[in-house]
């Protein structure tokens, strides 16, 4: 069945056609704003175009172009390649009786690394990146970094299943203010085409009221499934209330993305997923490298107790 509507905006075009959903054009907002010199999370002068707020609230996500240069992507990829080749003792897992390891390779043709700034200082610069920071402030209000990880997919990596990080009640619009309790920022280090295992989402599902069986529907059979594509250096910003996952990778080469997940300051980070606390929390020796903005975005760690 064809899509019943065609939505055109100044910054992008969203088109549904009667064709293989994996080849649909990307749904996104693309923007190259002037570089801001501000490095304060609480700076009220930060603002984003009203059209971006509208489309984010409508779709649950937007994509910013050219947040990172190709050179920056390549440098990070070189470091990440070395980190993925290592094995990690993770002695803390035994000490607390379980947990998520630093390196996860149990999924065929996929490697995930958790707690990126613990692994190398190169990942510090993406915390509150200048291009992303205004969106954290606009959509979360008092953003705090909760989680960081990478996912590298090779040919044959499979779709795992639809999910969301927070319920739809955690995305609100009141008195002209958007608030999403958890906001994910995804840095594309490689091109993310529809066959490259890119993120797939359901536009508008962050405000959906009807529950359906998510496990019974593969990616390409879910009504409204839309690949979110982009070039190396682009950044996807989405509410974790939006239904999403990653598509199968059918192309050669490796597709690598970095994920920096933020929550509102009222969110109790350490009780959300106790198995992940080691990766959520950065020890003082890591945070000693941070500038004022990154310290502010991780200030909940001043109050946390984690000695493992």
Topology of this structure?
Blueprint: E1 7-8, E2 13-14, H1 50-59, E3 61-64, H2 70-84, H3 91-96, E4 103-104, E5 110-114, H4 116-119, H5 133-139, E6 143-154, E7 171-174, E8 177-180, E9 182-188, E10 199-201, E11 226-228, E12 235-239, E13 244-246, E14 254-264, H6 269-272, H7 277-280, H8 284-287, H9 292-297
Antiparallel strand pairs: 1-2, 3-12, 4-5, 5-6, 6-14, 7-8, 9-12, 9-14, 10-11, 10-13
Overview of the structural elements:
With 308 residues, the chain is of the alpha+beta class. The protein has helices at 50-59, 70-84, 91-96, 116-119, 133-139, 269-272, 277-280, 284-287, 292-297, and strands spanning 7-8, 13-14, 61-64, 103-104, 110-114, 143-154, 171-174, 177-180, 182-188, 199-201, 226-228, 235-239, 244-246, 254-264. The chain has one domain: Sandwich (Jelly Rolls), CATH 2.60.120.620. It contains nine helices and 14 strands. The strands form four sheets. Strands 3-12-9-14-6-5-4 form a seven-stranded antiparallel beta sheet. Strands 11-10-13 form a three-stranded antiparallel beta sheet, with no helix packed on it. A hairpin with a 2-residue loop joins strand 7 and strand 8. The longest helix is centred in the first third of the chain and has 15 residues, at 70-84. The termini are far apart. The model is unreliable at 1-45 (pLDDT under 50).
């Amino acid at each position: 069945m064809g899509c019943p509507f065609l939505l055109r905006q100044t910054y992008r075009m969203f088109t549904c056609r009667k064709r293989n959903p994996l080849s649909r054009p990307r749904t996104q907002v693309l923007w190259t704003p002037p570089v801001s010199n501000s490095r304060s999370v609480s700076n009220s002068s930060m603002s984003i175009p009203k059209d971006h707020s509208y489309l984010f609230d409508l779709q649950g996500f937007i994509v910013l172009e050219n947040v990172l240069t190709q050179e920056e992507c390549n440098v990070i990829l070189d470091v990440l390649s070395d980190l993925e080749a290592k094995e990690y003792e993770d002695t803390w897992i035994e000490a607390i009786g379980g947990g998520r390891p630093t390196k996860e390779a149990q999924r065929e043709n996929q490697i995930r690394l958790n707690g990126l700034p613990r692994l190398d200082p190169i990942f510090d610069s993406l915390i509150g990146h200048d291009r992303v920071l205004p969106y954290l402030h606009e959509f979360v209000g008092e953003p705090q970094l909760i989680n960081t990880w990478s996912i590298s997919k090779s040919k044959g990596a499979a779709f795992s299943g639809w999910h969301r990080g927070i319920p739809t009640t955690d995305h609100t619009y009141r008195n002209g203010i958007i608030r999403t309790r958890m906001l994910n920022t995804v840095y594309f280090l490689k091109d993310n085409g529809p066959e490259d295992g890119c993120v797939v989402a359901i536009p508008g599902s962050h405000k959906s009221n009807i529950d359906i069986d998510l496990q019974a529907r593969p990616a390409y059979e879910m009504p409204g499934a839309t690949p979110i594509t982009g070039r190396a250096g682009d950044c996807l910003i989405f509410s974790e209330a939006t239904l999403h996952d990653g598509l199968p990778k059918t192309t050669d080469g490796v597709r690598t993305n970095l994920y920096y997940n933020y929550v509102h300051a009222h969110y109790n980070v350490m009780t959300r997923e106790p198995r992940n606390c080691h990766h959520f929390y950065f020890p003082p020796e890591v945070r000693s490298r941070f500038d004022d903005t990154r310290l502010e975005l991780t200030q909940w760690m001043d109050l946390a107790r984690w000695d493992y």
